[in-house]
Amino acid sequence: MKAVDSASKFDQDRAGEYAQQSRIGLAGYDACHDLAACLLSVTLDSESEAQILVVGAGGTAQEIVAASKLAPNWKFTAVDPSEPMLQLSRESLASKGLEARTELHLGYVRDLRTEKKFDAATLIGVIHHLQGEDKKKEILDEIASKLKPGAPIILAGNRFDYASKPLFLSAWGELWRMNGVSKEEVESKRAKILHGADPLASNEAVIDLLGSAGFIEAEQFFSSLFWSAWIAKYNPNQSQ
């Protein structure tokens, strides 16, 4: 799948329902973002004037909202290829008085025209939408090129082939039913993720992918059915 195809999935209709839907389909959505902010805070020092690269920031901008509660001096550069999703982030940030601390860029990391290196990066809810390992490594390589040595990255997304975990897949469907979705709608959602996403095969595959882009010492800090999150740090001497 080309990068543009990944972006096109998040059209006006999907963007409009993203905030609610993500909190159901990705159980623990808010807790994951809160923990990510806490880990970055203790890694970078919440009193610092760090510059954070937020990749795939469209939708809720929850990475920025959570981190801003701990780190009043951090500035954010948010990148997303979907205009409807980026607009949602713009509205969310404005409602919380955070627009002055954030630069929003429509497009991809490779489109950023800046020489500055960032102190940290986040890639949350993106990796499983990219088809094939080459596309996944490409985005991590692009992020790595924008980071200072030793900078932490937060990576969160789905892993495991969905069909390989029937118990998890059934529980995921029940989670939707618990939130008022009919059985017929659940089946439609299940069919959509089985054919529309490409999660990494295992936890080990995630760590290997991070390592191939120069991210070392990866530690998993959150897991919820298919959804999981890691923190790692950039070592340019380890990239392949």
UniProtKB/TrEMBL annotation:
<dbReference type="InterPro" id="IPR029063">
    <property type="entry name" value="SAM-dependent_MTases_sf"/>
</dbReference>
<feature type="domain" description="Methyltransferase type 12">
    <location>
        <begin position="56"/>
        <end position="151"/>
    </location>
</feature>
<dbReference type="InterPro" id="IPR013217">
    <property type="entry name" value="Methyltransf_12"/>
</dbReference>
<dbReference type="Pfam" id="PF08242">
    <property type="entry name" value="Methyltransf_12"/>
</dbReference>
<keyword id="KW-0489">Methyltransferase</keyword>
<protein>
    <submittedName>
        <fullName>SAM-dependent methyltransferase</fullName>
    </submittedName>
</protein>
<dbReference type="GO" id="GO:0032259">
    <property type="term" value="P:methylation"/>
</dbReference>
<keyword id="KW-0808">Transferase</keyword>
<dbReference type="GO" id="GO:0008168">
    <property type="term" value="F:methyltransferase activity"/>
</dbReference>
